[in-house]
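Appendix B. Raw example, untouched.
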Amino acid sequence: MTHVEDELNSQPECWIRAAEQAEHHRGALPEPGERVAVVGCGTSYFMAQAVAALREGAGQGETDAFPASEFPHGRSYDRVLALTRSGTTTEVLELLAGPAGRTRTTAVTADPDTPVVSAADDLVVLDFADERSVVQTRFATTALTLLRAHLGLHTDAVVADARTALAAPLPQGAVECTQFAFLGRGWTVGLAHEAGLKMREASLSWTESYPAMEYRHGPISVTTEGTATWMLGEAPDGLAEQVRATGGLWIEGGLDPLAELVRVQRLAVAVAAARGLDPDRPRHLTRSVILAP
């Protein structure tokens, strides 16, 4: 078993622990009414997108998401919340150093023995969700679970769906597909982008991701036999029929969207195996991006 398989299979237990810890970390996480920016890089940025949409949707306050490298320094926020598995990513550390003394900062990380410990005002450590694989799975979803629980949006049903996602067969015909499109709505747009990234990283697949309603505005033109279009969350009316009419494979996400992401992680590993690739060591990638000074 690869590291990434072992790690993605442990997600239900990690989510239970994160949800239990949410109350303990309440003082370090955004308070209702705060204007918040959530930042990250790669996978963490896509989780930031999901968090921002969930928080605003819950009426907790204006919330934006940015790649750490694209943070708008001219804007004013009450708190910057950084998601960083390694705690060493250059762009995140530089960003956290910027608002020192002016804006409260919180970092959610997997490793307490890294520079982010001294860079942020508040720290949430999810070391039980750390990973050996370069490809992120459980840290990202566990961090999102922590924040869903903090917002009162996590339930035991989410964990049950994750167990189903790990036990149920993958969609028939999906491993044989050569092109993948992932769609989301609202907070699941970030999950769709992360699903696409997982397929690219682990299996070198041609993948795309879009807000579901935008898929009709051009991208559907390349959908054909051998294409899998996977919806994370509830699909817009009529979209499934339109995709099927192209000859492509439509995959309806019937589980909680975060559990659907677990199914996609499994698919990425299965496609990698079918192509003789090692998903623990994606081409040209490292665990953390550290830029030379």
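End of appendix B.
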